[in-house]
Amino acid sequence: MKYVTGIFAALLAVLLLFMYPMYEQARSQDKLAAATVQEAAVRLIDSARTKGYLTPQVYQDFNAKLAATGNPYEVKLQHLHKRYGPDYSDSADPDTFKGSFTTYYDGFYDTQILSVLFPDNGKAADDDSRRYKMQVGDYIGISLRNVNRTPAAQLWDFLLNDNTDGQASITVNYEGMVVNEDY
C-alpha cells in the first residue's frame, strides 16, 4: 500500500510541477494568438469601413498577421450591400406606387470578394479594378476560427482525458457599417 501511495504522490508531483505549467504556457500562447487575430480583424474591417474598399495588399497583410500566430484559420468575409425597392400595392402596375421604399441587403461573400481582389487577369495589385468597393450604409464583417488543435487544447485533452476535437480555441467575429467612400 505504501508503494502505491508513493507512486501516486510521484505522479501527482510530476503533474503539478511539469504538466500544469506547460498547459498554462500553451494557454497563454492561445491568448496571445487570439489578441493578434482580433487586432488583425479589427484593422482589416475598420480600414474597409473608413475607406469604402478592400485592396489585395490590405488583405495580404491581414493574412500575414494570421500566419504569424502559427495556426491555420477559416476566414469568412461578408458584405451586405444596402438597396432600396419601391413599394407598390400591385407590383404589375407602376401607378400604384405607395410613396415609400423598402430597404433590403444583397449579400456578397468570400468567393465574390476574393474574385475581385485576386482575379485571374494578371493585373497589378495596385490596379483600381482589384479594389473591392462598397458604399456608405453597407455592412462589412469577418468571422474567423482556428481549424487546428492548439497545444493548449491537446494538453487539456491529455490531462483530463477529454476530447475537444473540432472545437475552436480562437474565434473572432467583427463587423461594422461602411462610413466613407474614399475612391
Short description:
The chain is α+β, with helices and mostly antiparallel strands. It has helices at 2-51, 56-67, 110-117, 151-160, and strands at 53-54, 73-88, 97-109, 132-133, 139-146, 171-177.
SS-based structural class? alpha+beta
Q: Would you list the SSEs in sequence order as H and E?
A: HEHEEHEEHE
**Total domains, how many?**
1
Level of helix content? Answer: 40-55%
Strand tally: 6
Q: pLDDT below 50 for ≥5 consecutive residues: which ranges?
A: none
How far from one another are the termini? 79 Å
**How is the largest sheet built, in terms of strand order?**
3-2-5-6
Give the overall shape, derived from the CA principal axes.
elongated
What composes the largest sheet? 4 strands, antiparallel
Mean pLDDT: 88
Residue share in β-strands: 25-35%
User: Helix segment count?
Assistant: 4
Radius of gyration, rounded? Answer: 25 Å
Task: Characterise this structure.
- The chain is of the alpha+beta class.
- The protein has one domain (2-177).
- Helix content is 44%, strand content 26%.
- The protein is built from 4 helices and 6 strands; from the N terminus they run H-E-H-E-E-H-E-E-H-E.
- It has helices spanning 2-51, 56-67, 110-117, 151-160, and strands at residues 53-54, 73-88, 97-109, 132-133, 139-146, 171-177.
- Strands 3-2-5-6 form a 4-stranded antiparallel sheet. Strands 1-4 form a two-stranded antiparallel ribbon.
- Strand 2 (73-88) and strand 3 form a beta hairpin.
- Helix 1 (2-51) packs antiparallel against helix 2 and helix 1 runs antiparallel to helix 4.
- The protein is elongated, with a radius of gyration of 25 Å.
- It starts with a helix and ends in a 6-residue tail after the last strand.
- The relative contact order is 0.21.
- The mean pLDDT is 88.
